[in-house]
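EI: anyone free to look at a 383-residue chain?
SC: sure, send it
EI:
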Amino acid sequence: MNTVYLDNAATTAVRPEVVEAMHTVLTENFGNPSSTHAFGRASKAIIESTRKQIAQTLSCKPSEIIFTSGGTEADNCIIRSCVRDLGVRRIISSRIEHHAVLHAIEAMEEEYGVQLDFVDLDEQGSVDLVSLKDLLTNNEATKTLVSLMHVNNEIGNMLELNEVADLCETHGAYFHSDTVQSIGHFRLNLTETPIHFITAAAHKFHGPKGIGFMFVRSNIRLKSLIVGGAQERGLRAGTESIHDIAGLETAFRLAYEHLDQERASIANLKAHFISRIKTLIPGVVFNGDSASANSTYTLVNVRLPLKGDKAAMLLFHLDLNGIACSQGSACQSGSSKGSHVLDQVVPQDEKWMPSLRFSFSKYNTKEEVDRAVEVLADFITKD
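SC: here you go
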């Protein structure tokens, strides 16, 4: 059976060039980067070369890039450190953030008594900038952190990053954005955008799992959550995973070298998917802005005219037919709880309809999209 992988928002296939780079480091560069001998210096050079390359692409300083195990660690480190080290006593966020952010800010409320405020969303789940401005204007005397993701991982809605950054700068608030779904897919200029913190995970752009980074603007002094050695400018103790950093470097470099070409190809796949599913499944609804120009080109989230036992078997049927997609967020797989994101955007009288997220990459084809939609349509229309 030919399989079709359309769950790239959860994780992506590793590029062959990335595997090759990691293999070379695993077999040849085994020195501890904290050691001063030649083996250690060779490993250290890989780390610093990667840091410089990321900084150059994002238009920031190499010292502002800190390697982490991925987006969840980076989000937690930033949020907790803002409260613990910078005196933040108020956090403004949204109810459709990734749980790496939502659970982190809830922990700050419980542990430090931080005030949590949630910005209003429009009917499609996009941040209401007027609401954000009102929240920022109110209680300006309290140190505030705004934490809003750039690209929503379930419905693809995109935040107006520059506008939010300008609002935060005007009102003296720190701004953190979970950019896990956008790094490697969109160009960011951190010199022009006055944002204080962003996060990234390599496995979202064809790199290895377990490695990512955070950007911390140089005029901000945080403290490490993991203590021990002085690695990563003292912000992340522990011997660095050299082969993962090498894989991150290769994946990141190739993502931006081929960004325009691959973006056009993936956008065409998404447009083709939308066209085919509208034709074959009358009654399909698109969640959030996932079918509009306000969404990322990498995913679409659909609500389907199914109910009862048949709806419960939908994902199982697709899996049996070799179609991989996601029901809600991949981080909730196996959970009995519904999607907190869809709960905010799906009308109450349509919550019974099952939703699926399909997400695309450079490795997908139109033939795969056709097969996925046809299998889905056959299941929905047959008695």
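EI: The first strand starts at residue 4 and ends at 5.
SC: 👍
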